[in-house]
Amino acid sequence: MEAIQAFPRLYYALPAHAVEVLLEMRNQLDASVRFCVLSLGTALASSILLAPHSWWLLLPAALLLFSYLAYRACLIAAANYGISVIAAFDVYHLRLFDEMGIRRPANTNQARDLHMLINDLGSPGLGGRNQAVMATHDFPAAR
């Protein structure tokens, strides 16, 4: 299953506690990226403005150090977010089938085929692939 195409669908099938973990990891990534970019920009701007004042250049040097540390935090936060997304796929990918009303696959080959069909949903130029997904759909009985 392609994460970029399937994750928006899987996100709606996740339980609340899994969504909270993903949001927390994403917020950590966002914050560390902001700290990195802002401290780097501030370091560059202050080094230009404080160039005539030699002792004040310690401030941009400190900001560069902070930017480096924030960059390292970005790498760790990105890895943690990626691990969380992978874990969500590993644990809840069958729940996606349930939420979409698609019968769970009986074997690995069937799972691969269904994953490919789910990846293709919403893609332009599907042709008859939607019919294959609809054939695996469990429609509720008419009353």
Structure characterization notes:
This protein is an all-alpha fold and 143 residues long. 76% of the residues lie in helices and 0% in strands. The protein contains five helices and no strands. Helix 4 (108-120) crosses helix 5. The longest helix has 43 residues, at 58-100.
Amount of beta strand: under 5%
Q: Measured on Cα atoms, how large is the radius of gyration? A: 23 Å
By DSSP (H or I, 4+ residues per run), the number of helices equals 5
Order of helices and strands: HHHHH
| Nearest-integer average pLDDT | 84
Low-confidence stretches: none
Would you tell me the structural class of the helices and strands? Answer: mainly alpha
* Overall spatial form: rod-shaped
- Helical residues, percent: over 70%
Report how far the terminal alpha carbons are from each other: 35 Å
Number of strands: 0
